[in-house]
Design a protein that fits this description.
The structure is a single chain. The protein is mostly helical. Helices cover 53% and strands 9% of the residues. The protein contains 10 helices and 5 strands; from the N terminus they run H-E-E-H-E-E-E-H-H-H-H-H-H-H-H. It has helices at 8-15, 37-40, 93-105, 113-159, 163-190, 198-210, 212-216, 222-230, 239-244, 251-265, and strands at 20-24, 27-31, 65-70, 76-81, 90-92. A 3-stranded antiparallel sheet has the order 3-4-5. Strands 1-2 form a two-stranded antiparallel ribbon. The protein starts with 7 loop residues before the first helix and ends in a 13-residue tail after the last helix. Residues 266-278 have low confidence and may be disordered.
């Protein structure tokens, strides 16, 4: 084996597209005519197959592949598939995209739900903030008490003459210092590492829920649309889940059905407490 008389690029330039040598993931491929560029770019973030990591194979529940097979007449047939793991699954890309679109169009936000959700998120956030601040305050109070206790112990040691008594008091002082150190660590954990702007976050939530079709269907960036689609679920759905409607929605979407049910019946459904919070 040797590098060859000429490089692949030189060979391709000399043949002017009549015969093309292409290095791909599965090895070297030779084409009689140069395929479209989108068929040669098959990375994870390929705009041609953006749902490969968002929707899973219904058989093995692993990410799908995306590629185009070449027919006898040289025409390419793009599809999502999973036929390299001991089973066969293949859906034409056009059919796959139609399933995604119909699924999104089938999600309807109940009137008043988005505002109710935002209010619930804000209320829950304020509640947790108050609890967090209360915990920090309690820890600070306990630390102050222990520091006062340590000072009193230190003053007593200066007045003692018995070595045995001094030893016990010093051990007590060491234990108090250890308790203070432990409380300081606990206090550090109780303080959020990154402050979240709840108003900004709820604004994003509201905009996403009110403009789902615009973001997930009519957006210009296919990779970004796929990412937005993934936000709808707690765990990636299989293709069959989307077809049969057995997917597990993210909580902010799932609560929409609870809200709609409650409004339609004018009573709280069994097992759902009033004033739900995300």
């Amino acid at each position: 084996k040797f590098k060859g008389l000429v490089s692949i690029d030189t060979f391709n330039q000399a043949n002017r597209g009549k015969i093309i040598i292409q290095e791909e993931e599965n090895g070297i491929k030779i084409y009689k005519k140069k395929p479209p560029d989108y068929l040669l770019k098959k990375g994870v973030r390929s705009p041609e197959y953006p749902y490969k990591r968002v929707v899973l194979c219904p058989h093995c529940k692993k990410p799908l592949y995306g590629s185009a097979s070449r027919g006898r007449l040289g025409k390419y047939y793009p599809a999502y598939h999973c036929n390299k793991r001991g089973h066969y699954f293949r859906v034409p890309k056009k059919e796959f995209d139609t399933t995604i679109r119909k699924f999104i169009e089938g999600i309807e936000m109940a009137p008043g739900y988005v505002d109710a959700l935002v209010e619930a998120v804000n209320n829950e956030w304020e509640k947790r903030e108050q609890e967090s601040n209360k915990d920090v305050l309690n820890i600070d109070t306990r630390i102050d008490q222990l520091k006062t206790q340590a000072r009193i112990t230190a003053d007593k040691i200066r007045m003692l003459t018995s070595e045995v008594a001094v030893k016990y008091m010093e051990e007590e002082l060491v234990e108090t210092d250890a308790q203070i150190a432990g409380l300081l660590e606990e206090r550090q954990k109780a303080i959020p590492k990154k402050q979240v702007d709840i108003k900004e976050m709820t604004a994003y939530i509201k905009y996403f829920l009110e403009h789902m079709e615009d973001l997930l269907i009519h957006g210009e960036n296919p990779v970004l649309k796929a990412k937005y689609f993934g936000v709808l679920f707690d765990e990636a759905p299989t293709y069959q889940d989307l077809v049969s409607g057995t997917q597990k929605f993210a909580q902010c979407i799932a609560l929409n059905e609870v809200f709609a049910y409650s409004k339609s019946r004018l009573v709280t459904p069994p097992g759902i407490e009033p004033g739900f919070s995300p």
